[in-house]
Amino acid sequence: MNYIKKLFRFIIPYKRYGILNIIANVFYALFSTLAMISLMPMLKVLFGEGEKLNQKPIFTGFSNIKTFAEDYINYIITTTSEMHGPQRSLLYMIILIISLFLLKNVFNYLGLYFITFLRNGVLKDLRNEIYDKVTSLPISYYSEKKKGDIIARISGDVNEVKGSLLAILELIVKEPLTILFAIIAMFMISVKLTIFVFIFIPISGFIISRIGKSLKKKSNRVQTEQGIFLSTLEETLGGLKVIKGFNAEKQFNETFQKSTNRFYNFSNTLMNRQNLASPMSEVLGIITIAVLLWYGGSMVLVDQTLSGSAFIIYIGLAWQILTPAKAISKASYKVKAGNAAADRILEILETESPLKDRQNAIAKNDFTSDISVENISFKYEDDLVLKNFSIKVPKGKSIALVGQSGSGKSTIANLVTRFYDVNQGRISIDGTDIRDLKKHSLRSLMGLVTQDSILFNESIKNNLRIGKEDATDDEIIEALKIANAWEFVKDLPQGIDTNIGDSGGKLSGGQQQRLSIARAVLKNPPIMILDEATSALDTESERLVQDALENMMKNRTSIVIAHRLSTIQNADEIIVMHKGEIAEQGTHAQLIAKQGVYKKLVDMQSFE
Asked: Where is the chain membrane-spanning (predicted)?
């Protein structure tokens, strides 16, 4: 239960529900025992065992409460029977029994009612914090993790923890108190018989604990495998065109089925181990009851040290202990399963982001001078992608980065936006190292248009409002016009309120890209980063997008990463990159005149 300490902060906001649950459970446990004991006077009336008492007993203190209670009930039964007959006494006893059983169940419901708010509240806050953590962790974190595994943790694992929270509260309060009150009542009926019962309890506990020992490991295997097949599903949905185009359905089906078969086998092992808890505890309980019947029956029939009605109630109390004992054994299994799930959740929550804002980070709201990249070196894993790389981007100027795939162009965009941190050197804006700026304020100064137009299953309006939350419809339409997107948006059935489908799938590639540009235009940042924004487009779409980009880049500082060189001929400076270093730099005309690497790239693309 160590994880409860770590997750306790999620319980604190709902502690009042926890307290109310505990109070309700205390009364539930109390009335459970009283309801059972209340059957004794009725049995005494039926069997004629009750002692006749015509004088009202006097309460002499809590030390004699048992004697006082018995005498008082005998007094009521005696006087009622004499005045109205034994049937009236029986009726009163039945009303008492019904009332106590009703109170027991009312408090049982109240306990469950209050715990519902605590469990679902913890579930909500836990999911919210994991989601917040997922969005705050650096992009590099997800290059090592499967998306499906993250989804499994935020859905299945969190549910497992929710279930184990209730189990823990039952383990701590409800069931132990029910057992405790029943044992107290059993001691009051017969000390000798109760001590005899206690010999069997440690044996039962030892057997149940042995069954549950390996449960955490088995539960962890199930949850890990769930993450694997969810990852396969997520990848399948994202790559359906490729899968169908290459007739690879069979391969992916086999991969998925292998995972679900492992999940099936692991789940069977886990569930069978869990299912053993209830019958095992019941069998042990029946053995205990059988021994009780033999030993207690001797006390009634041979020794005559116990009345028949008291023995029946005693058996009832012993049987009543079985239900909470079974619940405790089940709950202990849930706790172990919840422990494995919590480990996976805490792994995400306790992951420290290397890109966290520094303690005295500055909020920068304007851009006045330049972006300076000074002698930076960077590697994703082992090999350096950039080596002692330096450029300066003055305010209002457009700098283009060109070169072969793998030359480090997109890495510059990732570093300037601080999706990654440099290994050596520094990147500064207006002379301030971007690591000394708050990430939120840094990215507020920048607009990003990527090669993949990342759109969401929302309306056009809501997709654009990611750039500016409070944008009016007129501002959205103006941004669409600048991005050459209004021409097709105005003809859509619901205009800017039209849903564009999953990842913008209802639109063409060119239309998707122009919406991405409109989103950046609406944000209206002083710095624009374009990462191969036209490379995936056909010629006609490229021309429209290129016009949109030129409209957007007017009077803005731009870093343009380009594959198609025709799109960056008007840049103020072109940087030609080769294996993470600068091969050439200058304007389009200057680089053509040099007859170097850039000229070869232009000629190759002209040939294409």
From this structure: 22-47, 90-115, 179-208, 283-302
Alpha-carbon distance of 461 to 472, in angstroms, equals 9
Half-sphere exposure of 143 (CA within 13 A, CB side): 7
Contact 204, 325 (CB under 8 A): yes
CB contact at 8 A, 571 and 381: no
Per-residue model confidence as pLDDT tens digits over 49-102: 556 656 676 766 666 665 666 666 666 767 776 777 777 777 877 888 889 889
Residue 20 scores a pLDDT above 90? yes
Summarised one tens digit per residue, pLDDT across range 481-515 is 888 888 888 888 888 998 888 778 888 878 888 88
Show Cβ contacts of residue 296 under 8 Å, excluding neighbours closer than 6 positions.
Answer: 190, 193, 306, 311, 314, 315
In terms of DSSP bridges, do strands 527-531 and 557-561 run parallel, antiparallel, or are they unpaired?
Answer: parallel
Q: Rounded CA gap, 56 and 68, in Å?
A: 10
Q: Using one digit for the tens of pLDDT, what is the confidence trace for 214-246?
A: 555 666 677 677 777 777 777 777 667 667 766
Q: How far apart are CA 260 and CA 266, in angstroms?
A: 10
Indicate the residue type of 161. Answer: V
Retrieve residue 463's tokens.
């997709």
Backbone angles phi, psi at 596, to 5 degrees: -110, -140
Q: Measure the CA–CA gap between 249 and 256, rounded to whole angstroms.
A: 10
Structural domains of the chain, ranges and CATH numbers in brackets: 2-349 (1.20.1560.10), 370-607 (3.40.50.300)
Cβ neighbors of 230 (< 8 A, separation 6 or more) are 148, 149, 151, 152
pLDDT of residue 607: 47
**pLDDT for residue 103:** 93
Query: Residue 387: in which H helix or E strand, if any?
Result: strand 384-394
| CA atoms of 410 and 386, how far apart (whole Å) | 11
- pLDDT band per the 50, 70, 90 thresholds, residue 107: very high
- Decide if 416 contacts 529 (C-beta within 8 A): yes
Amino acid at 121: G
HEC sequence for 146-208: CHHHHHHHHHHHHHHHHHHHHHHHHHHHHHHHHHHHHHHHHHHHCHHHHHHHHCCHHHHHHHH
Relative to beta strand 573-578, strand 398-403 is parallel
Integer Rg of the chain from CA? 37
Tokens 């181990």 belong to which residue? 273
What order do you get walking across the sheet with 527-531 strand by strand?
446-449, 527-531, 557-561, 398-403, 573-578, 581-586
